[in-house]
Structures are given as structure tokens and as C-alpha cells.
Amino acid sequence: MLTSVLIGTGNVASHLFDAFMDADNIGVQQVFGRNTMALEKFSKHALTTTKSSEIIDADVYIIAVSDDAIEEVSKIVLNKEGIIAHTSGSVPMNVIQHSNSGVFYPLQTFTKGKKVDFSKIPICIEARHDNHLEKLKTFAQNVSTAVYEISSEQREKLHIAAVFANNFSNHLFKLAEELCQSEDLPFEILKPLIYETTHKLKHLSPKAAQTGPARRNDIQTMQKHLDGLENPVHKKIYQLLSESIKSNHEEEL
Amino acid sequence: MLTSVLIGTGNVASHLFDAFMDADNIGVQQVFGRNTMALEKFSKHALTTTKSSEIIDADVYIIAVSDDAIEEVSKIVLNKEGIIAHTSGSVPMNVIQHSNSGVFYPLQTFTKGKKVDFSKIPICIEARHDNHLEKLKTFAQNVSTAVYEISSEQREKLHIAAVFANNFSNHLFKLAEELCQSEDLPFEILKPLIYETTHKLKHLSPKAAQTGPARRNDIQTMQKHLDGLENPVHKKIYQLLSESIKSNHEEEL
Question: CB contact, 8 Å: A156 with chain B?
């Protein structure tokens, strides 16, 4: 069994803790956090501490704190021999100034209180040394079937891609909801369409799945839509994304 | 039983035909189209014709042709007494110049050859007269449990909302795929995130589900992402959508 210490008590830390506890061959021996209250929920299943001097030895230290705190927080375990891995999509591995540094980045959006099935969540791992990479891989494979070796450079692009795929598409759902509300229509009416939009990707590439007036270069409908949009930001988004779709399908027109 | 004639032989017509054939108390008596080849797939289960003079009497005529053909095509049944309903999201009901005009708009994205479960697809109906609206409602309720009475004005906004929710979000998936490819990463790695993005909407509003650097106004990460984007269109989209998210969450910052 691989042993671990979890550093951090927030949303990602909570989800990782649950996943590690459910996994067969890994254990969370201890959780470190500065806030006693936040540590409480972990204390039933693991040791907890607010003192860095009390942190125990483990194979892997998982740092699940906010991006800008990683470097500072990693210093409390720099005297340890285990792998020290952060969980961020956008922070390079080398901010952890230790030859045992690594990354254990679960590529998913975590909602507080909503348990997720980790078995299919891609886990992107990185380590300075091959033997650490192997150990981190074993660790990750106990949690998920989708483990990828990803460099810091690749991870940076992947994180941007995740922003487009998740943050931005979710925001478009928000704007669609606003448009419904402006006509007293329930957002519910759009949900089957939204679910089908992502379901399609099981069988089709996003390019093949593309439909709508911009793909057809249906100028009349696009102009009618632009006239129908009152909010200037909505108009700008409509124009920019339509232009981008058009240029992606130019060879078909 | 309510009888119907389907006018049109394309992708939407095919999906509607299947749905009508599966429904209990409605029948498709005939399919009209200009193309003999395209009519073939319908001919096993219904009469077909290429001659407008041969169109039979029915309770409902469903016009499933491209938006700009609706007005012209509707003229071939203007001598009929049944309801004449088009299936478009963005065309006003009154382009059909008949007191029996109506709309039967299924709010979904239809992929050729991929059968969909119509029972949950929202169907937006509209008619000039109350008794026609009632009949169209009965017709629609035989196909789906989600039937909405929607005016042409509402439908126009709803169609724009659908473009944001489906066309534009799908395009963001395309851009995310491009970013993956630029680093030799498989698009597969993003799919669990994409599925979770829409799955979240079963429990949360899009606003509550929003995460990411723009929501946190994490200027450092956003700048790093912008620096990491090479394509100027990607940069513009990143900026515009991030600004829009920020202004949506200003009160939290």
C-alpha cells in the first residue's frame, strides 16, 4: 500500500480524500490544514494536524491548496523524502523546490458536496524523476483508469482547453438562460438540447457535430438574431463566435 | 387518431417521421417531397408523392423544409382544411398565409442517422386559433411529454438561446480540441469534464455552477492563459467571455 498525507482542506482536497479512501491500495494517513474546523470532517478517517512539525512520513504528499499558495505551502514538507505533488492545472511543477516534486492534477470540475465517480476522471501526472513518476502512476491508477503523463507545458495548454470546454461553455448556458428569462421561458426547455450537445461527442467530433446558422453561413438568420439581441455583450459574443465557426467551415461553403 | 401529412424529406423530416410512427394516436398518412429518391425511405410505412395535386386530406400538415422554403412550400396545401404547421425555430408563424397556420418546433439538434428519444424533447407549438392550438397540443403530446405553447416572438428569442447553448458551446469544444491537438493530447482527456459540465445543470443553475479564473477574477492566471494562446481569434474569445463571466459575478468579488 502507498501511504499519503493530504495538505489542504478545501473542495478539491475533500473530493480527493474521498477518492483516496475509496481506493484499494492507497491510504491517507494524515490531513494537514491551518483551520481546525475545516479539519473536522477528515478526522473520523485520518489523523489531522494544524502543525507542520507534526506531519508524518508518507510515500506521497498531495498539496491541494489554491494556486498562489502552493509554493509557500510546499515548504512545510521540503524536509520529507516522499513525493510532493500539487494538484493544479496551471502551476508548473518546479514551483515546488524539491527534487521530489510532482503533479497530480485531476482534470474535472468539482462541486462542493456532489460526489463524483473518480474512476473515469483523467489524472495528469508529472514528476522530476522516472521512479517517482512510476510511483505516482501506481498511486493514480488506484484512483482512476485514465492516467496520463503530461508535462508542465502540456498541462498549461490543457488547462486553457479546460477553460474553453467547461468555464466558457457553462457561461454560454448562463447567457442562454438569460435569454429565456427575458421572454418568461423556463431554462428547463433548453436542457434536453444541452444534454444532447455533449452526448453527441460520444460519436462525433465537435467539428462534425457543428450545426446552426453560422455553419451554414445563413446570413439572414444571423442578422435577425443580432437584431434580436439587446445586450451589447451578447451581440459581440454572437458575432465573434459566429465568425469563428464560419472560418472553421469555410471549405464547405 | 389524428392524421398527418409530412412535407419534406430531410433530416428533421426523417426524425419526425420516426417519432410520429412510434406514437400511439397519430399517423403519417403521406409524405410529400420533390425528390423520388429521398421519398424511398418513407415509402415502406406511408404513401408518398412528388405531386402537390395528390396530397390527401389530413388533420395536420407538418412542413419540415429549410427556413427560406417554408413560405413557398406552404402554398401547396393552402387549399386544405387541416392545420398547416412548420417546424422552424426562427420563422414566424404568419409566413404561412392561411388562417390554419401553426408551428410545431421540436427544440433539439438532430444528427443524421442517430435516433433520438422524442419523449423528452420540448415541442413548441403555436396556432392562430384556440381550437387548432388544442389539436396541435394533443398531437404533440402523443410524441413528447414536454409540450410548450410559445409565441413567435418567444420562439425567436428561444432560437437565439439555443444557438448559444448548442452551436456556440459545441464550437468551444472544437477550440478546446484544437488546443489539445497543439500539444499532442487526445481530445478524450477533456470528455469527462465536458460531460460533467452539462450534468451539473441537473442540480445547479449555470451561474452557481460557474468556476474558473474569470469567476475568481484571478488576473494572473488569465494573463498566463492569454500569453499561452497563439491564435488571435482564440485570444479574443478568451477575453470577451472572461469579461462577461467577471461582470456576471462582480458582486461576489
Answer: yes
